[in-house]
Amino acid sequence: xxxxxxxxxxxxxxxxxxxxxxxxxxxxxxxxxxxxxxxxxxxxxxxxxxxxxxxxxxxxxxxxxxxxxxxxxxxxxxxxxxxxxxxxxxxxxxxxxxxxxxxxxxxxxxxxxxxxxxxxxxxxxxxxxxxxxxxxxxxxxxxxxxxxxxxxxxxxxxxxxxxxxxxxxxxxxxxxxxxxxxxxxxxxxxxxxxxxxxxxxxxxxxxxxxxxxxxxxxxxxxxxxxxxxxxxxxxxxxxxxxxxxxxxxxxxxxxxxxxxxxxxxxxxxxxxxxxxxxxxxxxxxxxxxxxxxxxxxxxxxxxxxxxxxxxxxxxxxxxxxxxxxxxxxxxxxxxxxxxxxxxxxxxxxxxxxxxxxxxxxxxxxxxxxxxxxxxxxxxxxxxxxxxx
Length: 388
Ligand code: GLA
Description:
By secondary structure, the protein is an alpha+beta fold. It has helices at residues 3-13, 93-104, 128-143, 151-166, 173-180, 220-238, 252-258, 262-287, 290-306, 313-324, 351-366; strands spanning 21-32, 42-58, 63-68, 71-78, 112-118, 185-190, 196-200, 206-212, 328-333, 341-347, 371-374, 382-383. The strands form 2 sheets. Strands 1, 2, 3, 4, 5, 6, 7 and 12 form an 8-stranded mixed sheet that branches. It has a 4-stranded antiparallel sheet with strand order 9-10-8-11. The longest helix is centred in the C-terminal third of the chain and has 26 residues, at 262-287. It is globular, with a radius of gyration of 21 Å. The N and C termini lie close together (5 Å). Bound molecules: alpha-D-galactopyranose.
């Protein structure tokens, strides 16, 4: 555990006999396959090196105390009382929802003091919430001496907590990516069957740059749920022709014959075409055709902008600045959209010029200062006790 975290932990909670253990869960960048996890689609996220660390120590009672080195809020949860959502609890609702699910599943939880610290920008579309959820589940299971090896069960439990406790009707992609991430690999996940395999992200002379618009995701949750409702409306209109395994599998000709509303048609066109792009992206990543991979990223953004309408002016401005900057093979928004982050595939030698150029283009268009993270595909949630 990093020395400063151990020191801050003792400063907050005092020294004690029990061991302070530490755990890490990464954020994720979705390479391609956006807004189709809840439509039975294929997605290709990668865990990133940025993430959240938790230092935790068992207590002798049934009180959970949560603090963060990045926020003054102090949260207390009594395991002997019902755990309900509470707006005053702020970020503490993510771990609280997971705690409730763990208890419902019969995990024998004891009191724990926990201190989080993060390198992940909050609300930037890199799944800080899924990272917090998976981290809570992973570390609390470990401290309860329950198995942590069933990552699928952990991901599903955390998705349920987010759906039912936080009230965001998210798909399975983020929690899965945070749990199953693997160094230098993306996860090709079939969200219907939950089958997955790893695709090596061998970018050679190129790198994926995460570009933060510095525009917090606005309306993301309500618009997100609205898109899900629209996709369900398309399925209803398809009637008995609706594919059982998700809208991504609907033939476009069926949409044309059953759906006359132009907005719903566009939503369906994004969903169906994004699935094809993910299949193509998996193929070209294996053959190393990075130019084709870059084109698919940009096509995905265009579809999310024009058909699914989840980008907004800030994401559009940063992607457009990236596409005009030196060394860029392609760029797109990542995550739910409506602000947050985009990714770009960039020639490594051009990264300094690329960032200067994107910064000035984006600043001129929006007046906001962007941030850049050069990261790579990383491992999923794991224990870090004993690591320096
Ligand atoms: C959010 C959700 C995911 C997924 C993406 C969009 O990150 O949590 O389940 O739907 O948006 O691809």
